[in-house]
Amino acid sequence: MKSLLIHANMSLIAFVDILLVGLVAPLVTYFFDDIIQKGMIFEFWGNYLTKNPKWILKPLGGCMKCTNVWIAIFMLFFYYFIPSIFIILGVVSLANFIQTKLWT
Fold first, then answer.
1. Residue extents of the structural domains in the chain
2. Checking CA distances to 47, which of 17, 31, 57, 74 falls within 20 to 30 Å?
C-alpha cells in the first residue's frame, strides 16, 4: 500500500513538472518572438531571419511553432539543472505577455 502512495505522489510531481514547463515554454517563445521584432533589442536577429528564409533558420526564430519545440527542450533543461534561469525567464515572459496581450 505504501508503494502505491509513493507512486501516486511521483505521478503528481511529474504532472506538475510537465504542466510548469508546458506553460512557461510558450510564454518564453512569445517573448522571444517579441524581442526579435523591429525596434526591439534583438532586431538584428529578426532581420537576419527575414533576409535568409532557409529551412534551417525556422527553429532559430523563423517559425514560432518550430522554435517552441526547442525552447521547450531548453526550458526543461533549465527547470531541472538551472532553476534560477527557468524562474527568471518564466517571470519576464509572463510579465511581457500580460503587458502586451492583456493590458492593450
1. 2-102
2. 74
**Structural contact between residues 103 and 94, judged by C-beta atoms closer than 8 angstroms:** no
Q: Which three cell numbers stand for residue 83?
A: 532553476
- For residue 4, the model assigns a pLDDT of 47
Residue ranges in the chain whose pLDDT is less than 70: 1-10, 104
Cβ neighbour number for residue 37 with a 10 Å cutoff: 11
Q: What is the pTM of this model?
A: 0.84
| CA–CA dist 92, 98 (Å, integer) | 10
Residue 100's φ and ψ, nearest 5 degrees, are -85, -30
The radius of gyration computed from the CA coordinates of the chain, to the nearest angstrom, equals 17
- 79 in Cβ contact with 86 (< 8 Å): yes
Question: What is the per-residue pLDDT for 13?
Answer: 82
Supply φ then ψ for residue 77, to 5 degrees. -60, -50
Look at residue 73 in the predicted model and tell me its pLDDT.
Answer: 95
